[in-house]
User: Fold these one by one.
Assistant:
Number 1:
Amino acid sequence: MKTTLIAFLSATLIAGLSGCSGSRHEAAEKYYLVVSNTKLAYFQAAAAGLDQAARALGVLAETVGPDSYDPQAEVQAFRDAAAKKPSGILVSAADAAMMKDPIDGAIAQGIPVITIDADVPNSKRLTFVGTNNYQAGLMGGRTLVDHLHGKGDVVVFTLPSQSNLAERLQGYKNVLADHPQIKITRVVDVKGTPSIAFDTTQELLKGKPVPDAFVCLDSSSCQEVADVLDRNKVDNKVIVAMDSAAETLTWIQKGKIAATIAQKPYTMAHFGALILDMIHHYKLPSLEGNWTEDTRSPLPVFVDTGATLIDKANVDAFLKAQTPANAK
């Protein structure tokens, strides 16, 4: 069975990359992507990846969730999607604790569920497709140390309920443990609202001393931090961002953001959809198997989609290399 699944995934990947529609799919075959904020550019990139995979396979797909950050509304969107008995669901969990029971419930109904971007590791999800977030935190931590030259106070903006951001923060902390003169003096919960990062940075500029560096573990906060520093003509501060939103890259080109760690949300959803399609057509003996501990499991525990450090030296090359979301 393992050989069959691998062979099918290889064929599916070829179809996905070439844009050839499959003829073996049912008319009602549909896959959902559930996210915590459908208006966020990061998740719109993921939605584009899902849509491209769906077009290549000749199946239906839909991205659902609230249009502003709302973990509870995301849970409801997941439950609503599961109630339609789709062929499979991808989900990026804003709150791992809240999403566990809905995922387990979907699995119990025979609906394959894969987490992307933000995992729910203690759930019965089949696998996780996304960034190695701890390694991303190490990458960011080393970048921070280089730019601070080993000394400074740091403010971190994050979403504590998300497991992926917690892993990134741990990566930063482990790097900084070897640099005792660099201290995280404050960790701010932005609650999915960029204006919190803006207002907090304004507040910090009024205090003494002003932090030497700002780290953002989400995709939106550092754009706000850079804006505040620019408006107040504050220079010589280090900003290490996350993800590759257009605004973030513009601030890098302007020299206000030192670097960002770019993830691959398009790839996460695209590849996740291919795996779901594989599982739909080549049924597992049970969706409730302990795939993490099964050494003969047909599924990986984790698919690392990679991360890229972008700074002023390579930002133009990065932009030039991007594949259009609708590429065939």
Number 2:
Amino acid sequence: MADLLPFVTLSLTRRSAWREAAERLRRGSAAETVLELVLAGRGKDGPGYASRLRSRAAAAIQAGRSQRVTVVSWNDAAYPPALTTIADPPFVLWVRGIAASLSTPAVAIVGARAASPYALAVAERLAADLAGAGLTVVSGLARGVDSAAHRGAISAGGTTIGVLGSGIDVIYPPEHKPLVRDIEKSGAVISELVPGTVPQPRFFPMRNRIISGLTRAVVVIEAGEKSGSLITARCALEQGRDVLAVPGNVLSGRNRGAHALLRDGATIVESVDDILAELGMSPADRPVGANGCEERRRGGRAADPVLHCLTPGEPANLDEIAERSGLSPSRLLPRLFELELQGAIARVGGGRFVRVDSSC
């Protein structure tokens, strides 16, 4: 618990301190040191503020363990590297299901809660096709488009991740408990909020930055002018992710937000091929398996510019690899995921990567 406690305690501090805390962690400061600096600036909250937060954090860890919830902290090798690149990443993720699914190449599908039958059908079809292309589907477990996307990925035998705006043990909406159980079998349900946290309106915009942060692209389906999906799209743009939108009926008013995204330059989506093309993939693309071993041994790995930036036994973070390779973090992450699937690199704590010095 000693290593986990400062990260969980940081997650309970005021959000205004998160960006600076994240920057210090990126620079290599210990979590306990960062926490002490954050707490030192909160003297006006009273002399017992720090001890109260630590007590809450300890109780949350115990609650998570009693419920067999996996807690993935910033310095854990299982922490998704994509999230380390956003301005205010979660310090911990509470996970139900398969934690390894958080680091797979992913696309988010978001949209209206009170969705039309057309939007539900499109969300389910796109999610199934993305799953068939080997991509993980991320959404927010809300009614409407979100739940259709999760179900579409599951129906295709794929992986999906649901991001909650409540504690990991408080499923909202409650009728999605069976869906959560289905997601956990091959994917994950996650939250940055400590167990027992009830859903509040302010938590859902916070959750949206995680939905986009986990992914390579965000697809918006049927979003009104004030839709929460537009918050996710804005987060995606700020994080350097691609934003795509599905066109819809111009008479209903349900699609004005999505159409505004299209006018502003979002890529139009008519089929999964549009999404794959935006990601630089073809429908036949798959992670390289054992049958690609000989091709890599003949020079594929040696010629790779990302691998060339890494030295066996010397971990490097995304900023360092990006600087050496000349690639932006948003373009670098997909290649790192592919190299990890090939066994050419491995992740270590704090979103760092190290080259694996071994033959196929």
